[in-house]
Design goal:
By secondary structure, the protein is mainly β. The protein has two helices and 17 strands.
Length: 246
């Protein structure tokens, strides 16, 4: 339908120039805000190479970061499995307040325990998965054992730091989602002297991906002890121990 010129609003002299001036000032304010006011910080990532004292890649090493922002949400649950009469993974890192489940994927029973001050607990002989996970509510190192298979050895590293990772077989660890800021770095490995964590200085994060090497005081890889060769006496002793614990 054609527009009736009579119905169109009249524009008085100078009104168009005033509207153009307002638009120009508004555009200037928008550009000023975009250039001057701070925007959301971009999260960065850390790619770390963890080495032993001899400069060799170190598996099962923990790197944790304590920085400007704290993760307020509850930590996700974690899992420490038992496969082939070994704890899997050999080293598990969790944040304080994490619930950890201990499934038994073997076809035999295990009895998991720890006497560590950070968490003393015992899971009586069981197969499958216990109905209740274990709450790790204090920072520190928790050394795991099995009452039936005394060569089984595992570690749970509990930290207050919100950012952490465990290195793979090539000594590599990655931490994503780091806000810009300065972070204190802590390293740990089962081969560290007296099983103590070590401070590794500070790290400045400015919104980009960082790649850095860290050297631990560890003397080398700490492989989990291998199960002994099976024997008739050993199998009889194991069965007697399981029957006695029932």
């Amino acid at each position: 339908m054609a527009c009736n010129p009579v119905d169109a609003p009249a524009v008085g002299p100078g009104q168009g120039s005033r509207m153009t001036g307002r638009n120009s000032r508004l555009l200037s304010l928008v550009l000023f805000a975009a250039l001057v006011l701070p925007g959301p910080a971009h999260a960065a990532a850390l790619h770390a190479d963890l080495l032993d004292a001899a400069g060799q890649p170190l598996a099962d090493a923990v790197i944790s970061l304590n920085g400007p922002l704290d993760a307020s949400q509850a930590p996700p649950p974690a899992l420490m499995d038992q496969r082939d009469k070994q704890f899997q993974p050999h080293v598990l890192a969790v944040r304080t307040g994490t619930l950890v489940s201990f499934p038994n994927s073997d076809d035999i029973r295990h009895q998991v325990y720890s006497f560590s001050p950070a968490k003393r607990f015992e899971l009586r002989l069981y197969q499958g998965t216990p109905s209740e996970p274990v709450l790790f509510d204090k920072p520190g190192l928790v050394v795991l054992g099995c009452n039936i298979h005394d060569w089984m050895l595992g570690y749970i590293y509990v930290t207050d730091d919100p950012w952490f990772a465990v290195s793979d077989e090539n000594g590599r660890a990655a931490i994503a989602g780091l806000p810009a800021g300065r972070y204190a770095v802590t390293l740990w490995h089962p081969g560290n002297p007296q099983l103590l964590p070590q401070a590794a200085g500070e790290l400045q994060v400015q919104g980009q991906t960082l790649s850095q090497r860290f050297t631990l005081a560890s003397s080398g890889p700490a492989e989990p002890p291998a199960p002994p060769a099976p024997s008739a006496f050993g199998e009889a002793f194991r069965k007697a121990a399981e029957d006695a614990a029932q």
